Amino acid sequence: MHSFTIKNTLSEAEENYLILRFSDCLRSFKVSELYIVELYDRLYFEYSDWKRYYHNLSHIYNLLKLSEQYRSELKNPFIVDLAIWFHDVVYDSSKKDNELQSAILFEELMRPFLTKEETEQVKSLIMSTYGHKPLIPDDTDHQYFLDFDLAILAADKETYNIYSDAIKDEYKSLFSFLVYKGGRKKVLQSFLDRKMLYYSHYFKEHCEPVARQNRN
Question: What is the 3-state secondary structure (H, E, C) of 31-77?
Fold first, then answer.
């Protein structure tokens, strides 16, 4: 079972981990040290928005921990890490185009340092989170990236309840509790109606049964 941290403020050790992983990733694309600091500050600012109760830095931390754990399974680990960092950089719970806007911002900020192919790979990963279906079905990086993003659905019951409350808090200013509850149930049911929630072999075998029991 994977472990997750869901909170608004990370510890110093957790923040240092983020800085290290971010720096290592961008150095692999020969990004200057000055721009690494500038870009990290930009992403830190976006993910620290007070309205983000779940899609914040702890979410990025959790996904980076998973990408580290399953690094040997990834074909292009730094491409996956870029997608992790940018997939929720634009997040407004009242909007329906966050994935597209995140992909656009990624390209705007990182295009000078990546090849066209690398840019398209990251954008494809980000856009796969819209509907949570891999745009390249047989690509293992797409499979693992999406599985990382939904790994929380297979958390232990206590952690899952914290996650569920955090998602509810992100929508509390938009909908009444009853409206939110109905909409949330519909979203979860749409996942449960799928033939499979996860795409990689490990997640399908070990996480799928638990995720299907976490329904609230």
Answer: CCHHHHHHHHHHHHHHHCCCCCCCCCHHHHHHHHHHHHHCHHHCCCH
Domain ranges for the chain: 12-213
Query: What is the dihedral angle through the alpha carbons of 13, 59, 92, 25, rounded to the nearest 10 degrees?
Result: 70
| Residue type for position 171 | Y
Q: Which of 162, 149, 157, 136 is nearest to 191 (CA)?
A: 149
Stated pTM of the model? 0.94
Per-residue pLDDT tens digits for 104-130: 999 999 999 999 999 999 999 999 999
**Cβ(7)–Cβ(162) under 8 Å?**
no
Q: What is the pLDDT of residues 33-79, one digit of tens each?
A: 999 999 999 999 999 999 999 999 999 999 999 999 999 999 999 99
Residues in Cβ contact with 5 at an 8 Å cutoff, skipping those fewer than 6 apart: 14, 58, 61, 62
Q: Is the dihedral of CA 52, 58, 59, 64 positive or negative?
A: positive
CA distance 135 to 144: 13
Distances (CA, A) of 140 to 71, 80, 135, 208: 12, 11, 11, 17
The CATH number of the domain covering residues in 12-213: 1.10.1300.10
- The candidate with the shortest Cα–Cα distance to 9, out of 50, 40, 43, 41, is 50
- Residue 73's region, left for phi above 0, alpha for psi from -120 to 50, else beta, is alpha
